[in-house]
């Protein structure tokens, strides 16, 4: 994470669907309903275990649990139950988003242990589909597409003339509107006029925040740009046979050289986007081996198992080279924030603290990679708001593969056999994976990461 600097050697801010058929919806929801089975009984360890999404680790990392206990005021048992409920909610909300199509209007978890998943829809006839999946249904006026169009109109207006006194705007699915945070109401209304949006779909809030980029192969470790400015590693990735990592775009431009936490030569930026978005990737030299790990600072490493997006309200933890390991919750996704260098869209707003030098570092929910630290306001003494850029768009933009505990690293990948993501399997169907034959024990449509080896709730050895 980095403060603005006048040095010419450092980057800005661096420190010295369409509705699906009923059959498809039922197939997808078969897994979601199974995953959500334990949400009603958060005090039960068995229920928490049963609520975990397919492919999730059965035992949460103890350092993650300790950090959640410290920052969220939970007991260890509550933290473990919350992680299980959040994993189940992520699977269910993803399935319902596909099943509801254009009527989907958002989803969020609530409760001390995230025991309640609420899914918003504009179609009252979909209440039963939602409740049958184990979630609470809420009928609202605007679908997600309508809210997204309002935000994109604000983004376009900001691109023409950056609104210095309007630092943040975002879709609030709980309120079912778009929230604009401004230091003056006149500045907010000027932006709304330029964007020509429906005023009824917008709420203006006063703020004193002044977000700035947080820039000062294991997620959260320090690295240095051109031998001076410091940022943090996001997540290890590969591209073909080349290893490296994703990080924040404001930390460097293509060609910027990097050295590791030990000041040894490390690699160089291959792609970078900032402002507009805030992500980049660095190709590392042969001295650095990408690992599916995030630095837990003061404890052990946290393992990365995938990159499933966590619902609003979920717990999330951040690793960075200045302040280490801190946790909070996801407040809103699809947020736009204006830094001194310009507006960045598509980031996620959180209650986690961060400071200069933490930029680019890992945000992770349970074992699922969420994104890379972008910027924020406040600090880790008084608290604050921090934004991260989701990791999946960065992977897609540069054709990268996330290194996970289930594969994607420098070793040879497992033999896929006859199993394939996207295939609908029925109970009794048999497949081969990594040389082993498995039998389907729960009807489902296979998703990436739900391979028989990592999803015992769906498959058993034949």
Automatic annotation (TrEMBL):
Record bears the keyword Protease: yes
Family classification: Belongs to the peptidase S1 family.
Keywords: Disulfide bond, Hydrolase, Protease, Serine protease, Signal, Zymogen
Coiled coil: none
Example of a GO biological process term: proteolysis
SUPFAM superfamilies: Carbohydrate binding domain, Trypsin-like serine proteases
Pfam families in the record: CBM_5_12 (PF02839), Pro_Al_protease (PF02983)
Organism: Streptomyces qinglanensis
Residues in Chitin-binding type-3 domain copies: 416-462
A Gene Ontology cellular-component term: extracellular region
Keyword presence, Hydrolase: yes
SMART domains xref list: ChtBD3
Record InterPro entries: CBM5/12, CBM_sf_5/12, Pept_S1_alpha_lytic, Pept_S1A_streptogrisin, Peptidase_S1_PA, Peptidase_S1_PA_chymotrypsin, Streptogrisin_prodomain
Protein origin, superkingdom: Bacteria
CDD domains: alphaLP-like, ChiA1_BD
Molecular function terms, GO-annotated: carbohydrate binding; hydrolase activity, hydrolyzing O-glycosyl compounds; serine-type endopeptidase activity
Protein name, UniProt field: Serine protease
